Amino acid sequence: MYSIICQAPKVVIYLISVAGRPGAPADGWWRTARDNTGIIKKIFDCIRGYAYICGVDYTTMKALKVNVTITKNGTEGYVCSCDHAFKHFDLGGSGPTVEEAKKDCFAFYEAMKREYPEADFPELDISWAFDFPSFFNHFDFLNITKVAKYAKLSPSNLRHYAAGSKGMSQKQFVRVKQALNRMADEIKECTLTM
Fold this sequence. Notes:
Largest sheet: 4 strands, mixed
Distance between the termini: 64 Å
Number of domains: 3
Shape: elongated
Strand content: 5-15%
Helix content: 40-55%
Number of helices: 7
Structural class: alpha+beta
Order of helices and strands: HHEEEHEHHHH
Radius of gyration: 24 Å
């Protein structure tokens, strides 16, 4: 009985998403029903609240879009933190490298699925944000000397910024970001031949 009750909102949310597909009334499917008391709308509002608490996008049943920021944690490595407030936990991870921190973040999410089997865990659509040191740790194939040349900065200073051992001004940050964007644009515009 308990599992049926837990699954019922998922079924109703699915039915709502089907009713809200393209071609359905834009005002919402409940307005098509002949219900003067508004009970259908009240049920919809309750289900919408349940879906929000569980982190489910009830309108399309798509993956949950979250932003995860990776920052350098002093000498301890790197830390991931998520902007979405899950009901039972805060999503995050840590590790000596950015890749290890990301793996720890995903492992933690999987562990929470096992810890709270009755909760609904949607697929995650993650947008990653990096602080300066974590960016250069993640994209370690970038040649810091070349990036410094594009940004018209000292390679030695850029190495310190990338390591997190020295702070940078907003003006320097903008110069590096613009240099990286120019480098990416140049790569996109070229054609590689054999």
